[in-house]
Amino acid sequence: LKTPLLGIRQLSALVLDDDTLSEDGRRKLELIRATADEAMGRVDHLLSATADEGEEMLGWGPVNVETLVEDVVHRLQPHAEYKGQTLRYDRPEPSCRVEGDELRLQEAVRNLVSNALKYSPEGETIDVEVTCAPESVRISVADNGPGLSGADQKRLFSPFQRLTPQPTGNERSSGVGLYITKQVMNLHGGDVDVVTAEGEGSTFTLVLPTMPSSRLRRADSGAPPAVTTPST
Questions:
Q1: What is d(CA 112, CA 156) in angstroms, rounded to the nearest whole number?
Q2: Could you tell me how far CA 191 lies from the centroid of its own chain?
Q3: What is the side-by-side strand order in the sheet with 136-143?
């Protein structure tokens, strides 16, 4: 898996050296290269999970949630554009912070947004929202897709499960995205809420503990954060 991904990355980098590229072409190639890098990171994550290295692999630190989500939405905009979909995200105020592994949290958010795009019909709207509360931060992804039956809901977070809904744009499904997302939330002391009904769309929400105020002040002051270990 890593060899062809490396080839995609290297070829996109070579084409980016072409001075005749349009601005739009350059933007899309940069997204291709960034997506290849992210996919390689996901392969590494799967390998580490298989090796049962768990939380020891986490790069723990303060994470700016709205910036993380904004980056995921930006990277997936070309997918939405390709299917004539609208991907909406309103950056929240004030800033939301959590403690965790930024790359793995980004992967969890990406899995939810990618699934919403993948299973929603062309022309639909996907809404991404971040809500800050004193005790938790919630990252919600709502779609108007096919929704999930009761039988599908029972298998949501098991590995290699292909559920009844089918991708609407010939995309492929590995059946591990939601399993990984749930695993990431467990390692961060969080959870995944699901509100869905067959034929009525779905809303998936990542729920994470808010960064303690004492550590938030330390992070904002530029002082190095205290080293912490996620509870299990």
A1: 12
A2: 14
A3: 86-89, 125-132, 136-143, 202-209, 191-196
For residue 50, the tally of other CB atoms under 10 A from its CB is: 8
Expressed in percent and rounded to 5, the helix, strand and coil fractions of the chain are 45, 20, 35
- Model pTM? 0.76
Residue whose tokens read 């080293």: 227
Per-residue model confidence (pLDDT) at position 215: 56
User: How many Cα atoms are found within 13 Å in the side-chain-facing hemisphere of 75?
Assistant: 23
Q: How many CB atoms lie within 10 A of CB 124?
A: 20
Q: Residue 94: CB partners within 8 Å, gap ≥ 6?
A: 132
The stretch 99-106 carries a mean pLDDT of 92
Is the separation of the CB atoms in 132 and 210 below 8 Å? yes
| Predicted confidence (pLDDT) per residue in 139-163, tens digit | 999 998 889 888 888 888 887 777 7
